[in-house]
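This part of the workshop introduces the protein records we will be handling. An example says more than a description, so a record of this kind follows:
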Amino acid sequence: MARLIFFLCLFGAAAPLLLYPAVVGLAARLRPRPWTPRNLPPPMVSVITVMRDAAAFVAPAAAHFRALDYPAEKRELLLYEDGQSEAFAAAAAAVTTTPTASDDAPRIVAASGGAYQGKARCLGQATALARGDILVFADADSALSPDALTELVRPFADPAVGGVCGRRVIGRDAGKLHQAQSAYFDFDRAIKEAESRLGSLTSNDGKLYAVRRAVFRGIPDGVTDDLYACLDVVRQGLRFVYAPGAVATVRTPSRDEAHEVERRRRIVCRSLRGMRLCRELLDPRRFGWYAPALFVNKALRRGLPFFLAGVFVTSTVLAPGSRLFALVFLGQLGLLLLALSHLSAGLARRSKKLARLAETAWYFLVGNLGTALGVLDFARGRVIVAWTPKKGEKEGT
């Protein structure tokens, strides 16, 4: 029985980390399905940013929006506050514009939701104010590249495309675990590129994504808006693709280990709730390859900490009677010690390469702790509707 549990857990851990990236990458090369490019006039675009305790980001968000290389008359920025504060009102008053017919400045509008109610409800209220055919959602701390909108809306020339995900790039800052988080997003980007060539993404990035207004049906409470928006587009029979040229530069997402655990815990719990609401996507009779892809890349990946724990426990039990299981046990123990060595203050001075490996292993360990807690929260029926994000040293803390 221990051997069976070992191999089941080993497969559960290997599937999202090794097997799925290899299979989807190969399939995308053998049977690519590119979206159809067409030379159409640029559509009207509404960039929507919902903020909570983030007045300091109003001016930078407006500045990045004005610098975009997209026709001014074809874009607008909606800054929507979750709550109502004097700081946001003052910052918004300094950047809002309502251009005249002869003015070439893009429109910037600010509004507040009044009571603190959570991002999902604010997104619904903000989209009701939007005038664009394409709704672009960007986080308050996303610094968009000048061509971000152009690249993001380009795939919408294909009527089969209902949504597009941009690319997150972590800027150069002094955030903890910076290198490890950058490596994780590089891994995730490679999967997105392969999935997009094959058909549709099984994940999204809330830092920058876009959806056709005609297919956007709102975001329920207690889910991650980016994943749910992606899944809802796919279940309407449209594609959700990746635009790596649409770049959003952000700070290191997790400020420290405690923040990473809190952040991952919330994301996992809310994403599993969103998957449950879109569970028909797991039916391969209706959605073909996308069903097992979604199951492996999102559901099995959420089970990773439990599979790894199963491999560790069973290999410990089986190690005395088998050289193979003993090697597996020692390998896991070595990785655990490598992760813990990240806490050594002098490691970076002795070996920068070893320090980077230790940081990655430590981030993997911390992230799996947050994932496990998020799965347990979901299993207990916890619903996270609203929270205060940590966007900076003084914002949302």
